[in-house]
Each structure stands twice: as C-alpha cells, then as structure tokens.
Specification:
Layout: H1 3-12, E1 41-44, E2 60-68, E3 101-106, H2 126-133, E4 134-137, E5 162-171, E6 176-180, E7 187-188, H3 207-267
Length: 268
C-alpha cells in the first residue's frame, strides 16, 4: 500500500506514528484496479495510525469523513465545540458540497496482525483481505432510497468531482474524538468519456468512424426494410391474382348450364 505501508515498519519497531501528520491515501492500484471510478474512490484503511492514542480498556471506532474539495476544505472541522464528531450526512451537506459528511464507521484496524498480502492472490481469500485493507467511498447505491436503512449512508459520489477525506479516532463510551488525520490530498472521480475518445478492443475508434458505422447501420436497416416490403407486396399480388382466377372459373361454370337450358327449349 502506498502511504501507510511506508510507515508500518516504524510503527512495528515502536517508533511514534502521529495521526495528525498523516493523510488518508488512495488505494494501491495493485489492490484496487479501476480506481477511482465515476462514482467511487477506494482508500487505504488507517493501519497503525491511531495506535498511540488507544487507551487500555476503552472502546474505539474509526470515523471516515468526506467533503468536496474547495479552498476551505483543509480547515473544515469535523467536530463540534465539545470535541464530538459531527453527525452530518450526505443529504445535509448536498453530497459534501456544503461541508464534511460522515461516510462510514468501522473498527480500528489491528496493527499487530494485519492481513497477509500473499492472500491477495488467493481467490478464496482476496475479497476478505481487500475488505480489511480498503474502504470504498460511494459504494452504496440504495441507502438514500431505502426507507428502512438505519446505518451510515455511503452513496455514490459525483462524477468528475474532487474530494478530500479524513479519518477520526472516536472514543465510543465518551463519544469524543481522541485523534484524527489531516485531510487527504485531492482525489478526483472519473468523468464519462466523450464519444470521440471511447476505447474499444482491440483498438480505439475515432468519432468519424463511429459516424460512418452509424450511417452503415442505418443503410443496412433500410435495405432490410425494403426487402421485407418487397416480399410483402409480392405475396399480396400473388393473392390478388389467385382471387381473379378463381372468379373467372366460377363465372364460366355458371354460364354452361344456362346455355344448355336454352338449347333444349328451342328443340322442343
């Protein structure tokens, strides 16, 4: 992992890891491919970041906050005057545009026994390992619209938007913040690619080729329609010819008895 893993050896050797000097880091691309996406950003969890702030016998949780990047983001507070963490939500802050909102809360990662990186290559273990290492912001597509949802909502982020993130260590019993990181460096979600730059396998199509392909598709459609129309008119014409032939045959058959009847009357 990028930022935190550089500090882990120092923490394990007993040297000081001060959370106030650290920032949340974007996930290593080897662990989280296609990151960021249009609506999500995967972060490294804070392994060994808050260990010096933990007191024996106390209970702690890590809170994660997000905010759309602006000139005031780095100075935005996530606590009130009594050092309690803000309970602001995605809806309260217009998706982080008006201030920081709480994205998630989870247990403090265990610095003493972190997941084994070797397990990442094990298909049976990779999912659990990545969940222990990483947290994906914007991963819940239903919580905003679920009337029965009662947890911390982590809805999709806006595309092509820059965000910053912050971790807090919260004493669950006292309900106060014991430690926190700095705001992260800016991280930007992806934007929808323009038509002229859409990648296709095995190569890239230009905007002109896409237009030509569309025209050819339209012409083929018109040819198919014309062919079906020809078959339809041919079938209808065949039915009309068959009807006319049948009518002539019936008329001829009716005329023969009349002729014979007239002849008999004359002979008599």
């Amino acid at each position: 992992m990028q930022g935190y893993w550089l500090l882990l050896p120092l923490c394990w050797l007993g040297q000081l890891c001060v959370a106030q000097n650290l920032r949340p880091q974007i996930a290593n691309p080897k662990l989280a491919t296609n990151n960021p996406t249009l609506t999500t950003i995967a972060l490294e969890k804070p392994f060994c970041v808050f260990d010096d702030s933990l007191s024996p016998g106390s209970s702690y949780m890590v809170y994660l906050y997000a905010m759309a990047d602006s000139a005031s983001t780095v100075s935005s507070a996530v606590t009130d005057n009594s050092s309690k963490p803000l309970n602001t939500t995605f809806q309260d802050t217009n998706g982080g545009q008006l201030g920081p909102y709480r994205v998630a809360l989870f247990n403090v990662p265990n610095c003493g026994s972190p997941p084994l990186l070797a397990d990442v290559v094990n298909m049976k273990k990779v999912s659990d390992v990545l969940k222990q290492y990483l947290f994906r912001v914007g991963d819940d597509v239903t919580c905003l619209y679920d009337p029965n949802f009662s947890g911390v909502c982590n809805p999709p982020l806006d595309e092509d938007t820059t965000y910053r993130f912050k971790y807090l260590l919260v004493d669950v019993v006292a309900g106060v913040v014991k430690d926190q990181t700095l705001w992260s460096d800016p991280m930007k979600t992806r934007r929808v690619k323009q038509t002229s730059t859409i990648d296709t396998w095995p190569g890239r199509r230009s905007g002109g080729m896409i237009v030509i392909t569309s025209i050819l598709s339209t012409l083929i459609f018109l040819l198919v329609v014309g062919f079906l129309a020809s078959i339809f008119f041919f079938v209808m014409a065949s039915r009309e010819t068959s009807t006319e032939t049948t009518h002539e045959s019936q008329t001829t058959q009716q005329a023969v008895p009349t002729s014979q009847g007239s002849s008999e009357g004359v002979n008599q």
